[in-house]
Amino acid sequence: MDKLVIEGGVPLRGSVDVSAMKNAALPIIYATILVSGKCRLENIPNISDVSTSFEILRGMGAEITRIGNSVIEIDTENLVGSTSDRQLVGQMRASYYLLGAELGRFGTSHVGYPGGCDFGVRPIDYHIKGLEALGGEVKTDEEYITINAPLGVRGNGVYFDGISVGATINVMLAAVLAKGITTIDNAAKEPHVVDVANFLNTCGARITGAGTDMIKIRGVEKLHGCTYAIIPDMIEAGTFMIAAAATGGHIKINNVIPKHLESIAAKLEEIGAEVEMLDDSVIVTGAEHYKRTSIKTLPYPGFPTDLHPQMAPLLSIANGVSNIRETIWPERFRYVHELRAMGAKIKVNEDSATAIIEGVKSLHPAKVKAVDLRAGFAVLIAALMTEGETEIYDIKYIERGYEDIVAKLTGLGAVIKKVPVTD
Ligand code: EPU
Questions:
Q1: Cα separation of 358 and 199, whole Å?
Q2: Assessment of whether the complete model's pTM goes beyond 0.70
Q3: CATH top-level class of 2-19+232-420
Q4: Do 2-19+232-420 and 22-229 have matching folds?
Q5: Contacting residues for 141 by C-beta, under 8 A, at least 6 apart
Q6: Is 22-229 in CATH node 3.60.15.10?
Q7: According to DSSP H, which parts of 342-413 are helical?
Q8: 60-91 per-position pLDDT tens digit
Q9: Is 81 in the pocket of ligand 1 (CB under 6 A)?
Q10: 237 φ/ψ angles, rounded to the nearest 5 degrees
């Protein structure tokens, strides 16, 4: 077990390259189950959720070869079946993509329950409903979800009651090799949904409408291998933007798609930071003082829930009372306890899932922990902002989704090291 030790109070300066998007890379890795042949995936982030996914696929018979740091080849021609390691599946959320991908390829899937960051109930009823609409008969017990499509997977109309990234992608995965046409109504519009559709189309799928709320998938016989580069991670980019502002720094963030960053850029500008969008990079300059604001998380193109926790330390030093209303994961507030330990004045109104943040002059160092992935980066931002030495424990959560974080922050002038926990 390691911890991060940060000597904070140093404004971040310089430039940093964003890695590929975790939440696109993971479904694309599982989507290779549907392919007959070899896929070369470029820009694969080196994070623990990706290595766990490789282990799961290897256990099913996939051949995965790493070619350089961020390029891999996956050959799923000889997959032996649809049984995956329950323990590994339970280590991460995105393993639920096995359901759609296996149903699509084998007409059956037998998968343990997904795990992942704990911020309250994370249901998969939309996934199940969508896969049932395509002919899947679903049985669940305490350990496994089992789906069989005795008459084959057939295209159908699917309407989601709420917007779900995972369910939209899972139905897309199950539908690409189905007989007939599938439509997904009230689909998620996130850039990663579009990236998965683009990958599948490069392999020969016929998907239109990804990025809108109505996706149409015409089933094809077979998918072939391809070479595909995953899009940059808008959440990592947004996280660095917030870190630049929070430390009063000045950084250029390379390898971004500016369109994906509009909601976070608008919010940072509103409170007083400077944001300059270039073709494929963004420059953020921090201010000495920030204004209060209100944030409400929403599906794309609204303010992303995955950037909510990182905003909390920044708003903790803004003038006045800010609030963050969480509409996607109403229990995503476990980081509040850690930020309070550093002197932040935050109350959570559980009825409205809102954090009320009263600005203070500065935070103070403490021993804190990463309670989940984005919450972990929230305390890291707090540590970078704060003069003195902060220690962050349980950093495995941060490493699930952020690549080379110590090297990247050191490159921006942060004084940070990863050391083994001995106490
Ligand atoms: N929902 C249901 N039933 C379902 C599925 C979702 O009620 O069957 C609800 C959820 O409870 C939630 C909302 O729908 O209130 C949206 O959930 P969604 O399905 O979109 O979330 P997800 O696919 O499980 C992905 C990301 C999350 C990110 C959300 C929202 C992956 C692996 N995870 O989760 O990422 O917060 O979309 O954008 O792609 C993260 O990266 O830190 C992270 C948590």
A1: 44
A2: yes
A3: alpha beta
A4: yes
A5: none
A6: no
A7: 373-385, 396-399, 405-411
A8: 999 999 998 899 999 999 888 766 678 898 88
A9: no
A10: -60, -50
